[in-house]
Amino acid sequence: MKKSITGIIPARYASTRFPGKPLVDIAGKSMIQRVYEQAKKCAALDDVIVATDDKRIFEAVENFGGKVCMTAASHPSGTDRCAEVVAAMKLESDAVVNIQGDEPFIDPKQIELVCKCFDDHRTELATLIKKISLPDILFNANSPKVIIDSDQFAIYFSRHAIPFVRGVEESNWLDRHTFYQHIGIYGYRVDVLKKITKLAPSSLEKAESLEQLRWLEHGFKIKTAITSGDTIAIDTPEDLDKVLRTLTANR
After folding, report:
1. CA 121 to CA 136: how far, in whole Å?
2. What is the CATH number of domain 107-230?
């Protein structure tokens, strides 16, 4: 039986590095409109909703014909914002996918990969991973890594390179083991989403500053899907300038 899945795009106006980011113009369309339109191309989603805490974003989404829900400004994460949308709109979906609001060119196929994870009845949460091919990513603390079991369920996430390859120089690790980078898109079974937002931050989460460790520490199963595609997140004005230069060059 096909699962009913809703895509939710958390979009905050406030941002330390890039205030007003969801509304920046990218070749004639706002970033949030581009994310929304990409998500709508995913046939595995039954609906797409923007979750925001700002009237300007709310009105912008309504103006381009998108579906939007106003949420509290106090949420510590996109996960909590998704949970409010489920409750406020009384969604009857089996699962929801938390789609990053700063990836205007997200591939709909990547969203579909997350949705397909729920074909496995054991899946409580889902996310994407990608094979690491560059040492700069493997040893970058800002790029979380993940190790998985034989069924592709996550065992652990870390900002450190894991696993440790004993007796091998770090420069040769990629030749001796397959490492995976975590890609920040999540799917949640709706009943599980309600549970995880009530959990207090865990010791592992505090140590690594990775919220998914809270879920693992409480015994929830996170299914992973492997993607080969790149993601382009816009975190700063400099990132935006780079994207705009690329778009101009490709015209």
Report:
1. 36
2. 3.90.550.10
Per the CB < 8 A criterion, the answer to whether 125 and 220 are in contact is yes
Identity of residue 29: K
Residue count of the chain: 251
Summarised one tens digit per residue, pLDDT across range 81-134 is 999 999 999 999 999 999 999 999 999 999 999 999 999 999 999 999 999 999
d(CA 238, CA 28): 18
The DSSP H or E segment spanning 225 is: strand 222-226
- Give the up-direction half-sphere exposure of residue 157: CA atoms within 13 A in the CB hemisphere: 30
In the chain, where the domains are located: 1-106, 107-230
Topology alike, domains 1-106 and 107-230: yes
pLDDT tens string 20-63: 899 999 989 999 999 999 999 999 999 999 999 999 999 999 99
Sort residue 128 into left (φ over 0), alpha (ψ -120 to 50) or beta: beta
Asked if the 1-106 domain carries CATH number 3.90.550.10, the reply is yes
- What global pTM score does this model have? 0.92
Measured distance CA(108)–CA(99) in Å, rounded:
10
